[in-house]
Amino acid sequence: MPGLEALQSVQYVTVKGKRFAVLDAEDWEALVEWLETLEDLEIARQALAELRKANGDREKAGWLPWEEIRGELD
User: Are 34 and 2 in contact (CB under 8 A)?
Assistant: First the structure.
């Protein structure tokens, strides 16, 4: 379920004068996943903007050579 649908599934309860939003656990997980995807997209947009600003030069854009960081991902 996309994040917006999860947000629309919110139900509200009032306890001791405080209003709380209640989500199904699956909807909550979908919302978190959606937000993580938005974060990842923003990171990618920023990286692309930096690369364009550096005229495609990865080193000037601050990117590390793949050979240097390849082992860190395993």
Answer: yes
Question: Do 50 and 61 form a contact (C-beta atoms < 8 A)?
Answer: yes
0.70 exceeded by pTM = no
Residue 2 has pLDDT above 70, yes or no: no
Other CB atoms within a 10 A radius of the CB of residue 72 amount to 7
Instruction: Give the start-to-end residue ranges of the domains of the chain.
Output: 3-73
Q: Is the pLDDT of residue 53 over 90?
A: yes
What span, in angstroms and rounded, lies between the C-alpha atoms of 35 and 10? 16
CA 65 from centre of chain: 24
**Distance separating alpha carbons of residues 74 and 68, to the nearest angstrom:** 13
